[in-house]
Design a protein that fits this description.
Elements lengths: L2 H22 L2 E5 L5 E5 L9 E13 L8 E12 L3 H7 L12 E11 L4 E10 L2 E16 L6 E12 L15 E12 L6 H4 L2
């Protein structure tokens, strides 16, 4: 093979690889429901700010570490798994006047855009549906780490995030004299790379 032909073949090989290389950094992930937790806190008549815990039921994440604006996520939060530290308290919070488990078991979040602030910080914009009411929310987050696990079994993306909600926005207006209006939420999230994490109908859009 002549040097000229060899040069052409090399360039052809590079050109064929370019689309794959451009897409390589954008990957899909499924949420690790074991290592992901959601904590929230709200005032109890000014005496304290008790904590509650919720868990992710399912969801997917598409994340591009170089172009955060191309990222997206959908997630469902299982209200039935609420843990306030007391069984009777759990039942009270899940009644129709508050979280209304009977009306809708899951809180649903879908992103609309991702805004990068610096190397590790960003704002996730999206819509949260709770009790059948949908509101726009913004979630400040930190990319903690994106790397293979210690044994190389998975590639994991880890995030920490916070947001504040006004419960009135979701129709939770009961017990104004004893429960605060502002709810502070902390999210500690791990997502495992999974090329099949996004449902087929989403891929076809």
């Amino acid at each position: 093979m002549s040097a000229k032909r060899n040069f052409r073949c090399c360039w052809l090989f590079v050109l064929l690889l370019l689309p794959a290389m451009a897409h390589a950094k954008s990957a899909t992930y499924r949420y690790d429901t074991v290592h992901s937790q959601i904590l929230f806190s709200i005032s109890h008549n000014g005496y304290s700010r008790p904590f509650g815990r919720l868990h992710i039921a399912r969801g997917w994440l598409r994340f591009d570490p170089d172009h955060w604006s191309r990222s997206a996520t959908v997630v469902d939060i299982d209200l039935a798994g609420l843990d306030m530290g007391d069984a009777d308290w759990n039942k009270a919070v899940l009644q129709p006047a508050l979280l209304d488990l009977a009306g809708a078991r899951y809180a649903h979040f879908v992103s609309t855009s991702v805004e990068r602030k610096d190397k590790d910080h960003g704002i996730l914009h999206g819509k949260l549906t709770l009790r059948g009411i949908t509101r726009a929310v913004r979630i400040a987050f930190t990319l903690n780490r994106l790397a293979p696990t210690i044994y190389g079994l998975h590639t994991v993306a880890g995030f920490s995030a916070t947001l504040s909600l006004n419960r009135d926005d979701f129709g939770i207006t009961a017990y104004r004299n004893s429960i605060g209006q502002q709810v502070t939420i902390w999210l500690e999230i791990e997502a495992i790379r999974d090329d099949h994490a996004i449902p087929d109908e989403i891929h076809r859009r």
